[in-house]
Amino acid sequence: MIFAGLPFTALIGIFGVAAAFATALYILKLRRRTVAVPFSKLWERILRDKEATSLFSKLKRLLSLFVQLALLALLALALGDPRATASFLKGRNLVVLVDASASMQATDGSPTRLAAAKKEVQKLIRGLGGADRMLLAQMDATVTPLGPMSGDTSELERALDTIHATDTRADYSRALRFATDSVRGLENAEIVVVSDGRLGEATDASGKVKLEADIRFTYVPIGTASRNVGLTAFSVRRYPLDKSRYEVMLEITNTGPEPEEVELSLFGDKNLVDLTKLRLGAGERLPRFYPNLSGASRTLEAQIKALPGSQDTLPADDHAYALLPERRRAKVLVVSQGNSYLEAALLLDEYLDVRVVSPKQYAETTATSGVTQDVVIFDGATPASPPRAHAIYLDPRGSGSPVKVEGELKQPGFDRLTRNHPILRWTALDDVNVARGHKLVAESADKVVGASDQGAILIAGQRGSFKFVALGFDPRESDLPLRVAWPVLLLNCINWFTDEDARYISSFRTGDVWRVPVVSASGQALLTRPDGLEIAVPVHDGRAVYLGESAGFYGVRPLDAHVVSPSPKDAVEGTRTAFAANLLDVEESTLEPVKELVVDGRKAGALVGFQIGVRRELWIYLLLAALVLTVIEWITYHRRITV
Amino acid sequence: MGFLDSILGRNVALGAVPRGANADLFDDDFQRKLDYLALVSKRAFAGRMRADRRTKKTGAGIEFADHRDYQPGDDFRYLDWNVYQRFDRLLLRLFEEEEDLAIYFVIDASTSMGFGRAEAEGKKFRYAKRVAAALAYVGLANLDRVSLTSTTDKVLSRMPATRGKARIFKVFKYLSELESDGCTNLEDALKTFVAQNKRRGLVVLASDLYDPHGFERGINVLRYNKFDPFVVHVVDREDAKPKLAGDVLLYDCETGDEREVTVTARVLERFEIAYKEYLEEIERFCSSKQVPYIQADVAVPFDELILRVFRRGGFLR
Fold first, then answer.
1. Helix B265-288 to helix A40-52 angle, to the nearest 10 degrees?
2. Distance of alpha carbon A205 from its chain centroid, rounded?
3. Which chain B residues contact residue A60 at CB under 8 A?
């Protein structure tokens, strides 16, 4: 037994003074209230009997004194905060990782797995010993400590309340590394994982997570059910050559052990587009493809619902969201003496507003008119100064060219291609025959997309805030216009300029760090979450960065949006980027709880040593005993037992 | 006092006692009822004046009582000549003489009679005065000689014997001026009383009988001196249930004796029992000595006590 509070000598002193004071009060003659009676002889009659028992009365008063002294002794001991030596020296240091991944939203808990996990953790908190300390951390796409390591149960319970479920998968390895780092060097370290066990392998880029031998590893399993059907893939894209139409691909997976029947609904702009009843066998993955969809759909949502007799335990994977790439009419100005191949290629995309002007007309009026264009195509005519728009230069010449044009090349070909560049998507330029061209010299920031052995002939780059593509030969002096690659190359260039390439991601995945293109001078953007909450997010390299945790539709706009627009609403809408986010994770949709957690070949043990309501601080019990004694003393005094 | 005003109109003006002071002793209706009641004594007492009561004294009455032998010097007029003719013997006829009765009201004016909590100050003393006033009025109405005396451990004051209803105001005045203050010692006080009053008669003792020297002694003094004691035991039931709790220092309001007591519910219970036993002891004593005893509970309405309890007890007819 040791005293964690006041030292023993101080306690003796306090008790001595208090006991002396109490005893002195008992020794002092009681000052009685004086009361007149009409006939004291009557009182003498009954007091004669009482005097016969005066010794007993004195003993009772003595008992009262002893009760008081015992009370003081208990209070003095409580001040000392006595603790068993073992429990004081061996307080545990716990890191409790509470799984808040999507699978914890399964409704087989009370009401969810996360709620059940919270109850388990609450039991842990209430069963903490006096010397125990605990650190609570939420484990989802990242690991979030919810406070410092503390033995304060109320503080821990407050932290526990802040845990909320996310639509992400748990980053188990990161959480374990965090936990081991937190308890490293501490005595009686213990890592407690409260989860359904669907955490995957504890492996990351650094390799397998290893737990130190002196760290106790404990697992509190949560969840019972395993029947679930979820959407595990959902994607949408517009057709590259007919952007008014789009196709949708989705996948439904029955992760449970029994066949399930579900109703699949597809909504476009919140209107039902398709409704299908599906039967999935145990563990079956069922892809569905919806080609050639059209209409003014902007938002797409897939939804599944279990039919009677079937069971779908996890609601988080029953919805999937996607946004079609926004289509707007791009203004394209063609500066040419006339090029049928070029004009025909541009006709393929009905979302292009194409206007053709001669180089002379361009130099005299159009360039100085101030009318903004999205893209200007210079067909063999290079302007004196670059336009305030994205530009395609076909066979550029002179000082106005964005790249330096050197000597003529005889029969250059695309010997080297940067195939992953957006403008080359779905193109095959390897065998294009070119009669002649000119060597282009790229600047350091420019990208040589295509080059012959003699030099670069296709360069993409950026000057100021405008992109350009320069082709080092006249297409008419090659067989390129006769190939499918020609219009595709042109449209790829325009899409690249307007960020409308066919590589458009219809949705982000929750749990990933999203990088959403946004133009912001202040370095900050305002992100609107699916629940309507707006938060400021940082913008790096022209992209808003955010770790998404919830599925749904998002919007992002720069915080410094000052766009000249007819109305403020248009100003906001014009700069707002919308996108969708989805869980789409088979691992999270698989709900069957894992019985045993194994990390690096080491099995997690069962939880021991936590008993609710049994606290190891003795002072609480001493105070309770003092309270009981006070009640006894009060009752015996007022019932005139000890007086 | 309307009734008295009507029959004693002259005396109303003479009343030395302020109306307000007497008003609470007994009201007009009460007096009207008392007017028809007669005070009964178990014995007949000799009196100086002819009144409504018979005494054993033979004299000038009209009702035959007895014969006795003629003695020289007797009045010839009372010789019974019929008896002489029949038995040849001189017998003298004796007649009962109707005389007035001497009634003494002894009022205990000790401190305990005036004891009480603030809201019931002197409840017993007031009650005793009312009883005395009522009975005195009845006595006066029956042409008895009424005398009042207040005592503690001595005779404090005395109102000389008087007759006639007109003297009731004198009674009121006397009673209203009484104060309760002093120790009770009935024996000493009544010894003085009997010494002062040679004429025997009915003694109405109105007291709480809280006599530390023993209530028996006082009553016995009256008995031994051939007075006819009538005990009106003024009782306040609240005395049996004192509102006490905890550690207290009790002191006797008369003697000043102090006792340290820790009052508990059990102690209060025992006190109540002791109080009842004390009342029973008094009643038993009076009963054994054939002393008329009435317990006048202050909680019982005053008129009820006079009209019912006294009648039930054979005190009034």
1. 120
2. 20
3. none
Which residues are A353's β-sheet partners?
A: A331
Interface with A, mutate which of B125, B270, B277 (most A CBs under 10 A): B270
Interface ipTM: 0.74
In chain B, residues with a C-beta closer than 8 Å to the C-beta of A45 are: 274
The CATH number of the structural domain formed by B2-43+100-312 is 3.40.50.410
Q: Is A49 exposed, middle or buried (0-12, 13-18, 19+ CB in 10 A)?
A: exposed
For the domain made up of A229-327+585-589, give the CATH fold: Immunoglobulin-like (2.60.40)
Q: How far apart are CA B207 and CA A589, in angstroms?
A: 101
Query: How many residues make up chain A in this entry?
Result: 643
Three-state SS at A337? coil
Do A37 and B278 make contact, defined as CB atoms within 8 angstroms?
no
Tens digit of pLDDT per residue, chain B (317 long)? 333 433 333 333 333 334 444 455 556 666 666 665 544 333 333 344 444 454 555 555 566 777 888 888 888 888 899 999 998 899 988 876 656 678 899 999 999 998 875 555 578 988 898 888 888 887 887 778 899 999 999 999 999 999 887 888 888 889 888 888 889 999 999 999 999 998 888 899 999 999 999 999 999 999 999 898 989 999 998 888 888 877 788 888 888 888 888 788 888 898 999 999 999 999 999 999 988 888 899 888 776 776 665 665 545 44
Q: Which CATH architecture has domain A508-582?
A: Sandwich (2.60)
- Calpha distance A183→A214 (Å, rounded): 10
**Under an 8 Å CB criterion, which residues of A touch B?**
30, 32-47, 49-50, 639-640, 643
For chain A, first and last CA: distance in Å?
Answer: 37
One fold for both A229-327+585-589 and A508-582? yes
B266/A639 touch (CB, cutoff 8 Å), yes or no: no
How would you class A252 by CB atoms within 10 Å of its CB: exposed for 0-12, middle for 13-18, buried for 19 or more?
buried
CATH topology for A88-224+593-615?
Rossmann fold (3.40.50)
